[in-house]
Design brief:
Order of helices and strands: EHHHHHEEEEEEHHEE
Largest sheet: 7 strands, antiparallel
Number of helices: 7
Distance between the termini: 32 Å
Number of strands: 9
Radius of gyration: 20 Å
Helix content: 25-40%
Mean pLDDT: 90
Length: 253
């Protein structure tokens, strides 16, 4: 999938207006640090793909699914993601289920945003720089000293050339799940049937990974998601339903 990294900050571009020689050197060094952090981000994502891909027969997850490897023999990162998938299933009343319907363990719905947050740690450690990292429609925002938020647009699932709404984000993540791009590919794990009542669910919160889990579970719940999202503390977002209605929410922490 396409991955994009946008970095901002006083010295992100490697120059400082009216800088002294020392300030200019610091700017160049800071830019080099940012470039190294971005390179590390992509390297980390490639490593995650090699470990977790269900399309690569040699990945640890593929071997685990075939029974050639047990969980104790997997890399600690695989065990961490496995535990998170268990927690996600419990936290969503089973509407996010990495074992449904009968394909064996498939962490695809969680591991992308988990890997993105992990890969962005070197970038988030750089002082004075902020970033917005996009991955397949999900956005991770790393804070900086600029009080102005990033503005994240929400695509209209009924007309993907149109922006339905926008969210200001200074720190955290925005995740969208739905059926506009890939059709009815999300199933209700309790019935095994594809769901179509919610066209898209966008969730913004302090954790991109959990926003992703909440968004997927909201689509899987169907119309019942309207009441359920009211209990997601510290999140905001937008549901677009197949009947043409929308539902916005903003919950305090």
């Amino acid at each position: 999938m396409p991955i994009s990294v946008h970095v901002r900050g006083a010295v992100a571009g490697g120059t400082v207006a009216h800088s002294t020689g020392a300030e200019h050197s610091a700017a160049i060094e800071h830019r080099a640090d940012a470039e190294h952090a971005v390179a590390a981000l992509f390297a980390s994502l490639r490593d995650a793909d090699a470990m977790f891909s269900t399309y690569r027969p040699d990945s640890q997850v593929s071997r685990l699914r075939r029974g050639e490897l047990d969980l104790d023999g997997c890399d600690p990162a695989v065990r961490e993601v496995h535990d998170l998938c268990v927690r996600a299933r419990e936290a969503t009343d089973g509407y996010f289920d990495a074992w449904a319907p009968t394909r064996g363990f498939d962490p695809t719905g969680l591991v992308k945003t988990w890997a993105l947050e992990r890969a962005a740690r070197p970038l988030s450690a750089l002082p004075g720089l902020g970033a917005a990292v996009g991955a397949g429609g999900d956005i991770l925002v790393l804070p900086d000293d600029d009080p102005k938020p990033w503005i994240v647009g929400i695509e209209d699932p009924r007309d993907r050339s149109r922006t339905l709404a926008s969210l200001p984000v200074h720190d955290g993540g925005v995740a969208t799940s739905g059926i506009a791009a890939r059709g009815a590919h999300i199933v209700d794990p309790h019935t095994g049937r594809a769901v179509t009542e919610v066209l898209s669910a966008t969730v913004s919160g302090p954790s991109l990974m959990w926003a992703d889990v909440w968004a997927t579970a909201a689509v899987a719940r169907g119309a019942g998601a309207i009441e359920w999202v009211g209990g997601l503390a510290g999140t905001s977002g937008l549901l677009v339903l197949a009947d043409g209605t929308t539902h916005r929410w903003a919950n305090p922490v």
